[in-house]
User: Fold Biopolymer transporter ExbD from Leisingera caerulea.
Amino acid sequence: MTLNRPIRPRGLISLVPMIDVMLILLVFFMVTSTYLNLDMIPAVEPSEGAASSTTPAPAGTLMIRLGADGVPVLRGTALDQDTLRATLASAIVEEPLTQVVILPSGAAQTQALITVMDSAALAGVTRLRVLRLEAAQ
Assistant:
């Protein structure tokens, strides 16, 4: 005699709960994340009449280009690390709020960028920015 057992229905695997959880996580991370506040370099300095008397005058900006070879270039002159540090230190002595902007090439090594940043820190630079320019497509 054979017993016929009822066949259990197979459990249906549904992806809907997983999608719901992923959507909740996505919304959570979007709401709690912070975005970078990138300071833009002013193209033109404000006129004296438009500037308020309570705001300090903007300090100078030095732009250092970092080529693919890792050599920093300031005002069109390639500098070694000691000369760069001395130049930045003298600029900081003249104007303590001098902003230094580093424009690294996409092919530059990270170590070269860190070396330039270290030189700036040792020279006393407190306002340092690193900008990466991308080509327009």
Notes: The beta strands are 61-66, 72-74, 77-78, 99-104, 127-130.
